[in-house]
Amino acid sequence: MFLIVPVFPQKVEFPQAYIESVRKGGIPMKLSEAEELICELMERHELFDECWSYQFDAASVRFGECRQRDKVLSFSKKLVYLNHESDVRDTILHEIAHALVGTGHGHSEVWSRKCVEIGVSPNRYYSSREIAGVRNRTAWLIADRRYGGME
Fold first, then answer.
1. pTM of the model
2. Cystine design at 52: which of 47, 76, 95, 123 (Cβ 3.0–4.6 Å)?
3. What's the pLDDT at 59?
4. Average pLDDT over residues 118-124
5. CA distance linking residue 92 with residue 37, whole number of Å
6. Residue 133's CB: how many other CB atoms inside 10 A?
7. Within a 10 A sphere around the Cβ of 127, how many other Cβ atoms?
């Protein structure tokens, strides 16, 4: 059996989010681990009782999203995979806080208080500049293969 290794003409740089995650304490989460964490936290905050659901998506410009009208929390597969558990947990709780306060609060004081109440800092975790590295598809594919792949 032969292993075919692609040759890249340019130097490949891993996304900064990935590098920081590894520096913080190891290999980022797998989707199955993130899914277990999402379910645990949504159950704890009774979102399933209110008919909320979750999904993973292909976004690369935002980590999480709360869609009030559809009652869906959505998380970027790429950014889950590129981050350590603590960052994924904070993002899940960030979106849960949006779900709990309801429509029209955005990142308001009401939302900030809910964040503190459920144990997450009321901050955004990524700027557009930090997420820009995720768009480097070559680096993404290499990281995906080298560290166990997405499930």
1. 0.73
2. 47
3. 87
4. 89
5. 8
6. 18
7. 8
Statement: residue 52 has pLDDT above 90: yes
CB 125 within 8 A of CB 87: yes
Q: Does domain 16-146 have CATH number 3.90.1150.10?
A: no
CA 35 to CA 45: how far, in whole Å?
Answer: 15
DSSP E strands in the chain: the ranges are 53-57, 64-67, 72-76
CA dist list (Å): 95 to 2, 7, 53, 120: 45, 40, 12, 10
More confident residue, 127 or 5: 127
Averaged pLDDT score across all residues of the chain: 78
Q: If you search the block for the tokens 């559809």, which residue do you land on?
A: 70
**Nearest 10 degrees: Cα torsion 19, 13, 95, 53:** -110
Q: Write down the pLDDT at residue 102.
A: 94
* Long-range residue pairs from 68-77, CB within 8 A, at least 24 positions apart, any chain: 68/98, 68/99, 68/102, 68/103, 69/103, 71/99, 73/38, 73/42, 73/47, 73/99, 75/34, 75/38, 77/31, 77/150
Q: Domain spans of the chain? A: 16-146
